[in-house]
Amino acid sequence: MSTTLDHVTIVAEDFEASRAVYDALLGCLGLAPTVDFSDPEGDEDDTGTVAAVGYGSAGGRLVLWLVAGAAATSGAHLALAVTERELVHAVHAVARDAGISVVQAPRDWESDQLSYYGTQLADPAGNLIEVLLRHPGRPTPARP
Q: Please, what is the Cα angle at 77 between 95 and 97, to 5 degrees?
């Protein structure tokens, strides 16, 4: 394959509220802020906030950027695959305990198109963050 997904960028109108969600959920999965930019000018003539945080694994590349902006990303669906069922439960527990919106509690998705175990959460703008474990031995179905 000559093409792979490099990273995803989510624009947040309420950067601090969104960052709290992504810090908690991604941190539970071993993805931490490895790049953190804040507004270096901070003067009264600067009406916009310049803020961005890049999440990645220790020593790994950045896979998700959260940036401040007035035109927030909405309707996105970020699906993160994990290798252990316990991680699905851990991220769900972190979300529940932190008051993060739980869209779907951990469950099996057994249809022919899905075949995985996962949970779905939402950031302040309503973007879905799904954490899933593919069922071993079952191929990932091809999409038309």
A: 5
Domain count, the chain: 1
Identify the domain containing residue 78 by its residue range: 8-134
CB 129 within 8 A of CB 75: no
Question: Does residue 1 sit within a domain?
Answer: no
- The reply to whether 121 falls in a domain is yes
Q: Where are the alpha helices (DSSP H) in 2-142?
A: 15-28, 85-98
Task: Please check whether residue 119 lies inside any domain of the structure.
Answer: yes
Tens-digit pLDDT profile for residues 23-33: 999 999 999 99
Q: Which residue has the tokens 């469950």?
A: 107
With a threshold of 0.70, does the pTM exceed it? yes
Tell me how far apart the alpha carbons of residues 73 and 126 are, in angstroms, rounded to a whole number: 9
Report pLDDT digits (tens) over 112-125: 556 899 999 999 99
